[in-house]
């Protein structure tokens, strides 16, 4: 009668901070448990405990009704618990097959690459990567495919319980669908899965029950069938959330602020041209690698461009930034999808992060002014609801949502004309999401132009005034106002009708 | 990565041992070291005296000034210059050549600084373009030392006394050597530059994340050139001060004859490390470096008074590098909250 895995009253504190204040959780064979909660609710700590990375907790863990000690990751693995972490642990210079059998006793001691490949193939098929040869180097795969390889490696251990920590956070729609299919297949084989995700639609689609964590406690465990978005969000936040997305006006008569002319970055099939208007949020929709993100990166001078230019309407100046520095001089701020890589100075205080793009503004004659810096940082922190008492703390201690607010907020220091954001809310919890959306809308209303690229359908559908859909490195269609629907975008970015494709031939 | 591996192995060996090691291991280790140090400091004749204290600081000055320069390179995330002593070697020859030809102190100083600026900016340019700092500066080390030895025919170049450089080498104010005063002034200036200027802020930001630095308009190319020039100019200054002290110069002054703790580059790097500056950049200060210089100098001085020859003294410097890395890694990990 008892569940396969049972956690009873798990508590964990770091010094005076109580990360977990009592968590109960059960998982049984053939169950997919959604573990949801805002960032900072204790999900990461709980996952570390379940996978044996953190053994300094109080409470009981039972497997098959018997109490066990998860003293190390190896112990957890031997009990059949495997975790796929957000950060990839693959070695890019080795092949897929080698990575799958890396560092485990589940492979042969001596084997040729071709033998390994043969052994790895079933695991790859399991995760839906059947189209990739196991001898391919991991460095040649997309981020999405790497996540799938990571999961394939775990499956090779034949675990009973698979913990997936935001497996789709970095993935486009098609790759996400593969993960979901895989989860369903594993469940039908009687495996148990704990699924952690910020994406509501996925939680509703595949989980059987949801355990909601709030403030270090397991707030509730509810069968998914009895939940809807509103209920779930209310459970996570402990309060009702008003409308997540700010209202749109869909104004047609907006001034063109920048014209992008025939910009042609690498990995994009053909040059792309479009207008960016003051006061609107333009959404670039596409799957991972569809070209949307590449265009933003190129406009920011972050990646080399074959050719093309940007025209600023106000000055009629035509330019193409060769470095982010030049883009910043034109008032263009860019947030890459990987904020930990180039969006933040993790080891530096938040205040320095916020003022980094415009050090000139907080100094006179090359000497920093503490007063000017505090004033600017306070202004940004208030605008983006960043806790002002934490400004001197390192950016690394912030949760994902707050980090994203800092990464975005720093661009206010240059009084931006144009903000380019690739994946505005990847790995960001619901509460912070709503705040970010509201602030972006406010910036647009003040006359800034905002372009976002996102693989999150919900976000692109409800935030954008206008949407350009990308398919395999080319613009498929432009949607405006009422035309923007999830179905239409999904259709456009996964499998557009050839007649819809407005391929601009390179001249 | 290293610290992660450490903690994983620790957790495998049982909860009790892990918590004891983590909580008290470093404290116990440092405690024992402190007791040993205090014991020898008290029982060693002439160690705890005003005169010896001045000697310790003066000895710390030359290495300290070079290490302050190198700190800029390290904090900016450009690792180390392995060409510190060779830069000093070419600078000292340039200075002594000019002095022996009666160009006067100022022009001779300028010659040494010019050498430093040129060699520093070339190295910085190559590093800034993406060259590996170790390889670039190892290559530069060979070139610089080769030029110095060739130019001077590997001979000692001496210039006559009295000369107008002596004030720097052997002069003092109220009994405090001028070189000590220079050390303190340079340390304060460097600390001010790092903390209070635009340039200093960029050093920290680029060091903390080169990618984020580039994304916010701070390119490493100019930064690498600037910090390499700063480090090289510090080498030039030390070379000039040292030559002024000896009224002579030879290409190998910084390889063997200085003190007896051996290789100057290793001493300088040890100083930066012992001060607790982050090897990967983004964290540290020249104040830390200065304290590191004084710390190493106090230990070295104690060993000299205890009659140790150069072998054990070089060994102790090596040990200090290794332990400081471990200790500071622990301290920093502990101060960071998890989750």
Give the radius of gyration of chain A. Answer: 24 Å
Find the count of extended strands of chain B (DSSP E, 2+ residues): 4
Query: How big a fraction of the residues of chain A is strand?
Result: 15-25%
| Largest beta sheet: strand ordering of chain A | 6-7-8-3-9-10
Whole-Å distance between the termini of chain B?
A: 17 Å
H/E series of chain B: HHHHHHEHEEHHHHEHHHH
SS content category of chain A: alpha/beta
Strand percentage of chain B lies at under 5%
**What's the overall geometry of chain A?**
globular
Number of helices of chain A: 17
pLDDT < 50 stretches of chain B = 1-17
- Describe the sheet with the most strands of chain B: 2 strands, antiparallel
The interface involving the most residues is between:
A-B, 44 and 33 residues
Q: How far apart, in Å, are the first and last alpha carbons of chain A?
A: 70 Å
Count of alpha and pi helical runs of chain B = 15
Helix percentage of chain A: 25-40%
Q: How would you describe the overall organization of this protein?
A:
The complex is a heterodimer of chains A (507) and B (339). Chain A is of the alpha/beta class. Helices cover 31% and strands 24% of the residues of chain A. Chain A contains 17 helices and 22 strands. In chain A, the strands form 5 sheets. A 6-stranded mixed β-sheet of chain A has the order 6-7-8-3-9-10, with helices on both faces. In chain A, strands 16-19-20-13-21-22 form a 6-stranded mixed β-sheet, with helices on both faces. In chain A, strands 2-1-4-5 form a 4-stranded antiparallel β-sheet, with helices on one face. In chain A, a hairpin with a 2-residue loop joins strand 4 (58-63) and strand 5 (66-67). In chain B, 75% of the residues lie in helices and 2% in strands. Chain B has helices spanning 2-12, 15-43, 50-75, 84-100, 105-128, 133-151, 166-169, 178-196, 198-208, 210-215, 220-246, 253-257, 264-274, 286-305, 310-335, and strands spanning 157-158, 172-173, 176-177, 248-249. In chain B, strands 1-4 form a two-stranded antiparallel ribbon. In chain B, strand 2 and strand 3 (176-177) form a beta hairpin. Chains A and B meet through helix 10, helix 11 and strand 18 of A and helix 1, helix 9 and helix 10 of B.
